[in-house]
Predict the 3D structure of the following.
Amino acid sequence: MVFAGRRGRFLAALLLAEFGGAMQGIAYSTVLPVVAGDLGGFSLFGATLAAGPIAAVLMLSVAGAVLGRLRPGVVLFIATAGYVVGASMAVFAPSMEWVLAGTIVRGVAAGLLAGFGMGAIGALYDEVERPRVFGVFALIWLLPSLVGPLLNAALTTWIGWRWALAWPAVVVIVARMLMGRYVSEVPWQRADHPARAGLGLLVAGGLVLGAVGSAMSGPAALVLLATGVVVAGVGIVLFLTRGAGPGRPSRTLLAFAGVCAAFFGLYELLSLAVVEGLGERLVWASVAVMAGLTSWSLAGLKPRPGARPDAVVVGATLIFVGALGLLVALGVAGWSSGGAPALVVVVVSAAVAGLGMGLAYPLLGSEPFDLPGAPPASMVGTLVAFAETAGTAWVVLLGGGLYSALHNSGLAPLPALLIVFGVLGLVCLAAPIAAVLRR
């Protein structure tokens, strides 16, 4: 049992911290427009929205070196202290600049803890148990995604946005304190992992450059966006291949980054497709999101290591099928004004993509720890966290940035979304190819 003994209690506390972090991340995305309006900071809205993931990517580029030199208890204390400082700066912010600065500090702390958490899971659980642990993580994200937006919107309306940001932070702090009671269970051996801050800066610089381009209009916007996407993508590939070394470990990490980019690219733009592309209400977007997350969570609870055909390849292929379904739905909307058939296709496609993520994610997240020639667990955990975080940030820049640039250039929402989901379809096609090549 993965929850048995002291290591199980450590895992339960880690999952509670993940739950609180998920609720706070959703709270930020829900109430940030209200925060910007209250503090007069809409000029910093985009920068604040992007600051957390970029800061996490930068931290993860050096987290392997930190984790190899500091004991787990010290890492947990530093990450928690940074989180408290960052969350407090946002909750008590007198201006939007404080919210931005707090988001950066919180992103750095989140990056450090993400690498630590992944490394701890890799060290505490074997190749049979670890996929189950990764499967449970998907379930932890289900409840916040379903109730988080409504709950935080209600709190903001009733007692103010500061409370909506504060209560998840309390959950995270309590969970970190519980983790501290059992952190001694995490095996640790000093290792001098190299820091690759240069490649982290390359990825972050590409993301920033692309974000700037997405806020502009005309041909220059697309050039800057494309340049940023390419630079960040090259940086991610170089970081993972140099960190894991040549051969199957790096191919598996690249496949994991590709699957995360494929699914989260669809997930992050799903509401936009329903509301802007199909002209439907937000409630239908919520239904589609719920369908994807629910199927991911249920499929992830029973991972199938060693299955034939390869569950990772099947899962990545299903994400691609989901992408094709979304393209068909948008095409139907353009041809016959959408309606119920297009909505049904969207919901089913989201569920299919979620099923694929549930099949692939737990296995791909676990595989790099067990491959011959893999680095120590602390380094592998950092690489796995970097692959997911950077891959997601990259695809959000690609899809969301492309839509913004096309919209700013005067293109109507539906044609713009057809182009965006066509590009995302190519990303989703690359995922099963990478899954096959990892073998």
Summary: The chain has a mean pLDDT of 88. The chain has two domains: 1-185, 196-439. The two ends are 29 Å apart (CA to CA). The chain is about 85% helix and 0% strand.
